[in-house]
Design brief:
The chain is mainly alpha-helical and 226 residues long. The protein has 11 helices and 3 strands. 60% of the residues lie in helices and 11% in strands. A hairpin with a 6-residue loop joins strand 1 and strand 2. Helix 2 packs antiparallel against helix 8, helix 4 packs across helix 9 and helix 8 crosses helix 9. The chain is elongated, with a radius of gyration of 22 Å. The N and C termini lie far apart (51 Å).
């Protein structure tokens, strides 16, 4: 348990919650486990995961419409994503499986691992509240979002720079004008200045995305095709 807690970055006050989160129905049925299996925790974890991810992308992608936010959330909470997250913390090594499930490779099965990831998240939430649950989830989500940013989202700053470079005498600068909110949910506002004139303003959950939003607005005002 201690090794898994190290992987999780969280120490449980109630160890039985973590034990239940790791207990597959096959083990509980074979051993008549009084603590039950992890299916109820999985149910709760699914909802906790959804609200954490939804809030995070809502704050960080303020320029995206509802449909795009829905697509991003779906890609972060789907079975394949959770399977990858579970493998990062070696979750399969700690699962309690029935003999048949163990022999059948259940510890490496995507459906079992993704369900267990949600169950463990619920256990963290019940044991410590929403903040440690957020901390646990967002370390995986942020990394996946960085990969998605590189592939799926336009680099508006580069496009704007290329437009401005047509006139070498022009000076482009990004200025942080506001920063508010708690550490886990900060909101930044950035202005993009052209020769000290404000040509765009962006707000997001990171300086990088606020700059991108400001550049997007500037390009839109310039009549550029986005």
């Amino acid at each position: 348990m201690k090794t898994l807690e190290q992987y999780l970055g969280y120490t449980f006050k109630n160890k039985k919650l973590l034990e239940r989160a790791l207990t597959h129905s096959s083990y509980a049925n074979e051993n008549k486990s009084s603590g039950g299996c992890n299916e109820r925790l999985e149910f709760l974890g699914d909802s906790v995961l959804s609200i954490i991810v939804a809030e995070h992308i809502f704050l960080n992608y303020r320029n995206l419409p509802e449909g795009e936010l829905t697509k991003i959330r779906a890609s972060l909470v789907c079975e394949s994503a959770l399977f990858e997250f579970a493998k990062e913390i070696h979750l399969g090594e700690f699962l309690r499986l029935g003999h048949g499930e163990q022999r059948g490779g259940g510890a490496e099965r995507p459906s079992i691992l993704s369900d267990a990831f949600e169950a463990v998240l619920a256990a963290i939430y019940l044991d410590g509240g929403i903040e440690p649950a957020k901390k646990h989830v967002l370390r995986f989500v942020d990394e996946k979002l960085r990969c998605m940013d590189a592939v799926a989202f336009k680099d508006y700053k580069t496009v704007l720079q290329e437009v401005i470079q047509k006139n070498p005498e022009e000076k482009l600068e990004y200025v942080l004008t506001d920063e508010k909110g708690p550490d886990h949910a900060k909101v930044f506002t950035v202005e993009v200045h052209l020769n000290s004139n404000v040509i765009g303003r962006g707000t997001a959950g990171s300086k990088k995305r606020a700059e991108q939003d400001a550049a997007r607005q500037a390009l839109s005002l310039m009549g550029e095709n986005l």
